[in-house]
């Protein structure tokens, strides 16, 4: 159980040029690099696609040899699942526990030996939820709407339809708990996610542009443009075409 919490960290291996190493060691570049990354954090654009599932389209059944998929309810989950998600997603164990304590659910797929293969989050409640979203914004999820987010599949388990299967189980859980519709989104250039989302029965892809300009943000969809301050709220219903 989650009896102990610690920050998760992970290392991304890659080749680094000798020029980059030299620049990083040269103090003359330090202030310029800091300025660049500070600007990147406050000048950001995300192009996304939002999808809706109304329960009318049933996803395809998983193959007979598909891995077992489970949903962990609110409260403690196994150390293996918690630490696996923390290592791969960068979430701390404290954040994972806080999400579960708030009533959010984890849907996850495991190999026969118990190894974590893929997972995702379900937000579903009888009151409006305020969740962290793109570029320091918050997404408002109204009561009666299921919202699926932060799905990931381990690299070795990809291209086997696990994402679609996780979505199918999560969708079923949402409607069983009284949701009238389920929403999800992905980056516009993420063709793999879009393919899995459509295969799970989601429809009505709505393009949206999320722009961060310093302390301001702009969310632009087909029907409207919303301006506001950073850390502001964006209703999920504005992102979905129902």
Tell me, what's the shape?
Answer: globular
CATH class descriptor name: Alpha Beta
The figure for the number of domains is 1
CATH H level, superfamily name: Gcn5-related N-acetyltransferase (GNAT)
Order of helices and strands: HHEEHHEEEEEHEHEEEEH
Task: Quote the CATH topology.
Answer: Aminopeptidase
- Percent of residues in helical segments? 25-40%
Biggest sheet, spatial arrangement of strands = 2-3-4-7-8-1-9-10-11
N-to-C CA distance: 40 Å
Uncertain regions spanning at least 5 consecutive residues: 1-23
Which percent band covers the strand fraction?
25-35%
Describe the structure.
- This protein has 242 residues and is α+β, with helices and mostly antiparallel strands.
- It has one domain: Aminopeptidase (3-Layer(aba) Sandwich), CATH 3.40.630.30.
- The protein is built from seven helices and twelve strands.
- The longest helix has 15 residues.
- The protein starts with 17 loop residues before the first helix and ends with a helix.
- The N terminus is likely disordered.
Which SSEs are present, and which pair or pack?
Blueprint: H1 18-25, H2 30-42, E1 43-53, E2 68-72, H3 79-89, H4 93-101, E3 105-110, E4 116-123, E5 129-132, E6 138-141, E7 145-153, H5 162-176, E8 181-187, H6 191-199, E9 203-213, E10 216-220, E11 225-229, E12 233-235, H7 236-239
Parallel strand pairs: 6-12, 7-8
Antiparallel strand pairs: 1-8, 1-9, 2-3, 3-4, 4-7, 5-6, 9-10, 10-11
């Amino acid at each position: 159980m989650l009896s102990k919490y610690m920050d998760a960290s992970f290392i991304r291996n890659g080749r680094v040029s000798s020029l980059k190493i030299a620049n990083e060691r040269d103090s003359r570049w330090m202030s310029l690099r800091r300025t660049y990354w500070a600007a990147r954090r406050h000048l950001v654009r995300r192009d996304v696609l939002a999808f809706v599932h109304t329960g009318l389209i049933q996803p395809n059944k998983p193959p007979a040899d598909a891995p077992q998929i489970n949903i962990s309810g609110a409260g403690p989950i196994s150390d293996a699942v918690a630490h696996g998600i923390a290592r791969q997603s960068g979430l701390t164990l404290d954040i994972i526990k806080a999400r579960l304590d708030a009533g959010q659910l984890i849907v996850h797929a495991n190999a026969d030996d118990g190894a974590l293969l893929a997972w995702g989050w379900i937000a579903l409640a009888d009151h409006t939820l305020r969740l962290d979203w793109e570029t320091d914004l918050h997404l408002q999820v109204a009561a009666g709407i299921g919202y699926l987010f932060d799905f990931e599949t381990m690299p070795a388990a990809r291209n086997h339809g696990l994402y679609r299967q996780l979505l199918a189980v999560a969708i079923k859980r949402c409607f069983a708990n009284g949701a009238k519709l389920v929403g999800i989104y992905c980056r516009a250039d993420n063709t793999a996610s879009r393919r899995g989302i459509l295969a799970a029965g989601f429809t009505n892809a709505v393009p949206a542009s999320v722009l961060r300009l310093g302390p301001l943000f702009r969310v632009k969809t087909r029907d409207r443009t919303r301006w506001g301050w950073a850390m502001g709220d964006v209703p999920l219903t504005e992102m979905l075409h129902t």
